[in-house]
Design brief:
By secondary structure, the protein is an alpha/beta fold. It has two domains: 213 residues, Rossmann fold; 91 residues, Rossmann fold (3-Layer(aba) Sandwich), CATH 3.40.50. The protein has 13 helices and ten strands. The strands form two sheets. It has a six-stranded mixed β-sheet, sandwiched between helices. It has a four-stranded parallel β-sheet with strand order 5-4-3-6, sandwiched between helices. Helix 9 links the parallel strand 7 and strand 8. The longest helix is centred in the middle third of the chain and has 16 residues. This is Serine/threonine dehydratase. Keywords: Pyridoxal phosphate. Its cofactor is pyridoxal 5'-phosphate.
């Protein structure tokens, strides 16, 4: 995949205009208590307060709104463990088109319920990538719907990039941004916005140790697919995308991996000091910053809280 094909600054600006009435411009939160504890100024981009409770609404909306009229008639389809599923379902509902969502059998109940509430048809499959993809092919063949990939799609990446663009605009001279890596849609979008709108600001990837394919791929210089991920951060269990990896490989400053225990501790701090509900995946960037905080003494760091769709009946603390 060639870097010449990636979204440009203009593409991201057009995406921002396109989705403006479909998303929230989420606020940036700070906490003097957290700043004192970590020894730096942390600016939290609260995408857990985004529509459907996650940044995914940005990319899904941009992808749907970029489709041709003929494509819209037959609707859209995807495979997702939850947040992209909800986002695409809502984007489809707002555009008055059908949506078909392939979800693994172990997807959180709260996310399955939300997808159905937005009017999409849910098709279950085994909890592995091969089953997701084969089931999706059957759905697309049957319905003629357009596949909107959760992250390996340039329209999706351009939409996700708007979160970091807003964070950069709403803060004063950040020294860096911490963003999570699952499939790489938000991460690659964050990197592009940092390059185009943040004066090539440093961006740090955050990943669970139990799903560290991006870290291993970055170190190896080639994409290594995920096998049997084991982490409470269910939104980050996916393999790094083909279109996402070259962007990450070229621009990421570092990738920090964290344990489930570190993720839970970060969740607790966010609940306690920010009074915000975040899912485990949403806490991974802050967990990563906590792990390396001594490297950023007295700096200004942005942290993207990517989602808040936690099952409150199954809190890990």
């Amino acid at each position: 995949m060639l870097l010449k094909d990636i979204p440009t600054a203009h593409d991201i600006e057009k995406a921002e205009e396109r989705i403006e009435n479909y998303i929230h411009r989420t606020p940036v939160f700070t906490s003097s208590q957290i700043n004192e504890i970590v020894g730096l100024k942390v600016y939290f981009k609260t995408e857990n307060l985004q529509k459907v409770g996650a940044f995914k609404m940005r990319g899904a909306s941009n992808a749907v709104l970029s489709l041709k009229k003929e494509q819209l008639k037959k609707g859209v389809a995807t495979h997702s463990s939850g947040n992209h599923a909800q986002a695409l379902a809502l984007a489809a509902k707002l555009s008055k088109i059908p949506a078909y969502i392939v979800m693994p059998q172990n997807a959180p109940d709260v996310k399955v319920a939300a997808v159905r509430q937005y009017g999409a048809e849910v098709i279950f499959c085994e909890a592995n990538l091969e089953a997701r993809e084969s089931t999706l092919r059957e759905v697309v063949s049957k319905t003629g719907a357009t596949f909107i990939h959760p992250y390996d799609n340039y329209d999706v990446i351009a939409g996700q990039a708007t979160a970091a663009k807003e964070l950069i605009e709403d803060t004063d001279h950040l020294n860096g941004i911490f963003s999570p890596i699952g499939g790489g849609g938000l991460m690659s979008g964050t990197l592009l916005s940092a390059q185009y709108f943040g004066n090539k600001m440093a961006v740090y990837g955050a990943e669970p140790k139990g799903a560290d394919d991006a870290y291993r791929s970055w170190k190896a210089g080639e994409r290594i697919l995920m096998k049997n991920p084991a982490t409470i951060a269910d939104g980050l269990r996916t393999s790094l995308g083909e279109r996402n990896f070259p962007i990450i490989q070229k621009y990421v400053k570092d990738i920090i991996t964290v344990s489930d225990a570190e993720i839970v501790e970060a969740m607790k701090m966010i609940f306690q000091y920010l009074k915000l509900v975040v899912e485990p995946s949403g806490a991974v960037p802050f967990a990563s910053l906590l792990k390396v905080k001594n490297e950023f003494k007295n700096k200004k760091i942005g942290v993207i809280l990517c989602g808040g769709n936690v099952d409150l009946a199954k809190l890990p603390f």
